[in-house]
């Protein structure tokens, strides 16, 4: 699971509607997988990202290269786009747990796949 996916996941346990994002990472195993650099894709996704969550998540997996705020010239800043590319698309969570900051529900990640299924009483 790439960090871009994690940036779009929130807890969906019944009545867990506040403070349910981003899911906290615990005991994760991270793998870097090289991917083609596509500047246009990054420019398009930029406005859709929850930036603060992404920065914090990247730090949790040992990547401290993202700036605290998106630079004003982001779209033309090749250096920034490369750093973003590495964090967002090349950083994979292979295994571990994602924990809801509100209800503490644990979503496991196994073989790179997040399991977002809930038990019947949680739906
Ligand atoms: Zn929750």
TrEMBL record:
Matches recorded under InterPro entries: Trm112, Trm112-like
The chain's coiled-coil residues are: none
* Gene Ontology BP annotations: rRNA (guanine-N7)-methylation; tRNA methylation
Q: Which domain of life is it from?
A: Eukaryota
Q: Which GO terms describe its molecular function?
A: protein heterodimerization activity
- Name the family: Belongs to the TRM112 family.
Mind telling me what this protein is named? Trm112p-domain-containing protein
